[in-house]
Design goal:
Helix content: 25-40%
Order of helices and strands: EHEHEHEHEHEEEEHEHHEE
Strand order of the largest sheet: 2-1-3-4-5
Radius of gyration: 18 Å
Strand content: 15-25%
Number of domains: 2
CATH class of the largest domain: Alpha Beta
Shape: globular
Length: about 250
């Protein structure tokens, strides 16, 4: 049986750009909804049914993309969000990641690159039945990386896509100290050195959701002067699948 088309929301004030992206992704069998300003985008993003993926421009009327992203995350939206922007500086990129972006694409870009990033994001947040053992248990927490679900004693624990990525990276490297620089490079794809507390804030948020006592963490330990170390051994080994590397679009 054929899977239902992925539901995409595009929030971009550039009508020409938004229309072009909508046409391209509809040709690839996505179900696409468009919004021209931040308030409309936030309204659509926070209503039901949820979208599977969001493309969010930073510079949009009425409410900018950063504010839309922040308010959506505060409202509990965990949908993967890819930011689109003409701003390529490191601080804007880190700002986006800091408030909950899952990826960040700078205009102009190759449409093939954007499409590859969208597919990779959907693959990580999908529910592939062929990988039922892609799970990890520690303490009272059960995590399924295939379905992007987590439960504690049967109750759902809501993690963002980025928090799943961070937790998976820690588990992949359990028992070893991983630096903030390694996390930036491997989770966010930022290969340069930046002084930031972004990682610490994301880890703090993750600890609040999975640790019995976030102030005295059991599993995600701080390695002072270095970064973090995940210390617990698994009950079930996760099958970890590599995400393909991204494959120029957006000139005005």
């Amino acid at each position: 049986m054929k899977n239902a088309p992925a539901r995409m929301l595009i929030v971009d004030g550039d009508i020409k750009m938004s229309t072009s992206l909508r046409s391209i992704f509809e040709q690839q069998e996505y179900t696409v909804t468009g919004a021209w300003d931040g308030e409309q985008g936030l309204h659509l993003l926070t209503r039901m049914p949820a979208y599977d993926i969001v493309l969010l421009e930073t510079a949009i009327p009425r409410k900018n993309g950063f504010d839309v992203l922040r308010e959506a995350r505060l409202a509990g939206v965990t949908t993967p969000i890819i930011m689109l922007t003409f701003q390529a500086n490191a601080n804007d990129k880190l700002r986006a990641f800091d408030i909950g972006a899952d990826d960040y694409v700078t205009k102009p870009f190759h449409i093939e690159e954007l499409a590859a990033r969208v597919k990779a994001m959907l693959r990580r947040s999908s529910l592939p039945a062929e990988h039922p053992s892609d799970t990890y248990d520690f303490g009272s927490l059960h995590v399924n990386f295939s379905s992007h679900t987590a439960h504690r004693n049967g109750d759902a624990v809501r993690l963002t896509a980025k928090e799943f990525d961070i937790l998976r990276y820690f588990i992949e490297h359990r028992g070893r100290a991983v630096s903030r620089r390694q996390i930036l490079r491997n989770i966010w794809g930022i290969p340069f050195d930046v002084s930031t507390r972004t990682i610490d804030r994301h880890v703090s948020a993750l600890r609040k959701k999975i640790e019995p006592d976030p102030e005295d963490p059991t599993w995600i330990k701080t390695v002072y002067g270095v970064g973090y170390r995940f210390v617990q051994r698994p009950c079930h080994e996760a099958k970890l699948h590599p995400v393909p590397a991204p494959g120029y679009y957006g000139h005005t």
